[in-house]
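User: Hey, my collaborator sent me this sequence without any context and asked if I could get a structure. I don't really work with proteins. Can you help?
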Amino acid sequence: MAKITLSVIKADVGSIGGHTKPSEKMLAEARRRIDVACRGHWDGEWGEKALLKDGMVTYTGDDIAFIMSHEYKTGADKIHKFAWDCFMAATEIAREQGCYAAGQDLLKDAPSGNLRGAGPGVAEIEFELLPKHRLAEAFLVFAADKCGPGAFNKPLYEIFCNGILNTGLLLSPKLRAGFTFEIIDMDHQSNDSDRIIRINTADPNSPHLDILALLSDIDRYAVESVYSNAYPDEKIVSVAATRLHNIAGKYTGKDDPVMIFRTQGIFPAPEECLDAFVESIVVTGDCRGSHNRPLLPVAINTPVNGAKCHPLVSCLGFSMNAEGAFANEFVDMFQGPAWDQSRAESLRDAKIFRRQGPFSVGFASRKELAYTGLVETEKRLDERFTVRKN
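Assistant: No problem. I've predicted the 3D structure and written it out in structure-token form, which is a compact way to encode the shape of the chain:
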């Protein structure tokens, strides 16, 4: 059977009036390039064969996302270079238009090979297309803005470990077999290695609690992948777990993760996935990346325009045919009245957090604030402290 790769690559390369949304001219150029890549020839570099099976350009807040299917493996230089060139072209337009933070997430002059450590968030899954045990390919693409890469930790734990929220874990023998989490330690800083742990939910020695113990620290540990136990070669989830301040050594914007989630059949159903986003999920992010705020489920192509800024999450549903192309339509999962109450509760909860200002839960952890001007203030005041004898 043929293999196909799904790649979702996302970055903030400039936006209008502050961190709001990319301009229409930036998006039009990105879409033009995606369209050419799906049709074939580009200045002789790719030859007559199309680079992509299919592709789409969206935005969530100020981040542009490329959703692509192709025949190359994960981490393929051709695909990553193409995405980088698209971001660079959009950056040039952002500079011409005077957009804010042009090229913000492009942290290198030119990456060698793939985009690892270059700034953009990358989620990818390679899989066999339409094997006997999976007669239709459906998947969700989640994109978050103004939050750290641990933003998906809580919903992923609930989807794969909580039978009260996801009753499919009880009803489906394929899901009952369990899953293997691949969790990355984001504090490990290296250009050529990652520090990861694999934990199987079917392990009898309290693996759910081990997973929970790690994922509860959303600023250090993040889910990077989830695999099926029933079909160990089947990767269900891929998350872009990149810390921009670990790459740049300073605050350059929040990390804004993206996630591919394959669904239906031998995997959780879309409604079982989405149920984990109904209640407020508090994440690190918001204005200056320095607060704790609840995620706001929004329709695709929604700008940032709320108080402070509010962390956003969008979700699109896709189907794929036997050639690796997407259906002519997609479903905007967070659009419409079904999510109105969740949005209202998220906005209400954000107001409570916002009233705390820099106190208690209002601010992110000191570890996250280490990349802000607060450090300089504390250093300056430290010299004025004196020791008073009792």
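In plain terms: The chain has one domain: 3-377. You can pass these tokens on to your collaborator as they are.
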